[in-house]
Amino acid sequence: MADAEPEAVDESTEEAPAPVPVVEDPWDIPTPKPELHEQKRHEFARILLHSAETDDFLDEVFIRHTDTVLTLRQSVSIALGTPYVSLTFQGEPMVQCSTMEDAGLSHNSQVSVAIVPGATLATSCTDNCIKMWDLETGECLETLWGHSDQVLSVAFSPSGSMIVTASADRTAKLWGAENGECMTKLEGHNDWVNSAQFSPDEDFVVTTSMDCTVKIWGTDTGECIRTLPKDVNPLFWAAFSPNGQFIVTSSADRTATIWVSSTGDKLRSLSGHADIVLTSVFSPNGKAIVTASADCTARIWDVHTGECLLILKEHPDNVTSASFSPDGKQVVTASMDRTARIWDASTGERLRILTGHSGVVTSVAYSPDAHFVVTGSRDCSVKVWDAKVGRCLGTLEGHASKVTSACFMPY
Hints:
This protein is mainly β. The chain has 2 domains: 41-115, Phosphatidylinositol 3-kinase Catalytic Subunit, Chain A, domain 1 (Ubiquitin-like (UB roll)); 119-408, Methylamine Dehydrogenase, Chain H (7 Propeller), CATH 2.130.10.10. It has 1 helix and 33 strands.
């Protein structure tokens, strides 16, 4: 009898699910859109993306109800091919990392998306020029020449229509942001002009100088309308309060001072730093001030009492610049330690460290929607960061010397 043919053995096994890749950079790979089977509709929500400008439909993304708004932003950025997006839902900016449910989003919710426009950044440099940059491409759109010495600061007007610059050539200048033409030269300081900033209504500019004075100028005439009482120390920075009624200045005498802008009267001094104060700016609600000092700290002050509320001390070197986020909930600082750091403005907790510059970080600022931070450095570069995760999104290179200041155009 012939041997029976052995039964075939089924060696097939059920295919194991592919492992989920570890994604270090959310911009590097596409996010698959899961199919919404009936049993999973409770897990995923389809979010409809519409243009904030035209209301046209752009795309759709699928997000778990338990995911954060940060995850939504990353998915939108991948879908649209750019990390530079600003999200709004029912008229409110989506900047916090709350869950989708906390944000009020559900299946088929419509989110408005604004892609940050082209000419978004302005930078100043010790090579005597100002550059305008396309944020998304990293290309320099225009270089503004006109100062005869290094440019120490640059700032947009609140509407974004003008730029003001301060220079070691002892002048400040007003420029048209759209055409790059010099509109007005502000002359009257006897030494380097360290900073220049607009008032909220754009009618005035305040400047500080190594000549120990602070001057207020009319933007329509270019004339100096007021000089604050002369100090005996150089002044490094000045900024208007959000309502325009006050000005805060920072000085080599280790203090910041609050002034009444309409009269030039001194309101109070903020004392406590152990070295020169390099920057001082108001919070968005005008109730607090943040100062940056060569004593390696930044401090947050109560405007009405002059009390120091918090000391931000983790930088191992001079703190060169500081700024509040647009909602006032965070502070970002820059330092000679080659980093910038993001802090909780209510607790003083350090939230993130922005590391990547090879030189002193001289300037730091938030974008108008708080999604991004821009830093300028003595390494001749400018970096744009995702403020929520602390990741560098791009580096702008083109200045021939140290970058002294960097800021976003309002959008």
